[in-house]
Amino acid sequence: MPTASWNGTVIARSDDTVVVEGNHYFPADSVDASLLEESATHSHCPWKGDASYKTLVVNGARNPDAAWYYPAPKDAAAAIKGRFAFWKGVTVA
């Protein structure tokens, strides 16, 4: 079962991930929301749309913008709506 972890803590775990461009997108309900903090960061992908980010806060350590999601993805990326992906040192195994 794919598991995302950082700083010794499991952030998300699910058998229902969608892999896009090598990134596992976890269903929102499989992510520990208590570890996520709002971020003002946004980016744009020509085929997926506009991404929003969240900062991970684990055991007092912060990992800015380490989680991202597409609130309203374009049709070509509809499969990742309501899902989170991770980077910046987050291990997915």
UniProtKB/TrEMBL annotation:
InterPro entries linked to this entry: DUF427, DUF427_sf
Pfam families named in the record: NTP_transf_9 (PF04248)
Superkingdom of the organism of origin: Bacteria
Record domain DUF427: where: 4-88
PANTHER family with a match to the protein in the record: DUF427 DOMAIN PROTEIN (AFU_ORTHOLOGUE AFUA_3G02220)
Protein name: DUF427 domain-containing protein
Species of provenance: Sphingomonas hylomeconis
Lineage: Bacteria, Pseudomonadati, Pseudomonadota, Alphaproteobacteria, Sphingomonadales
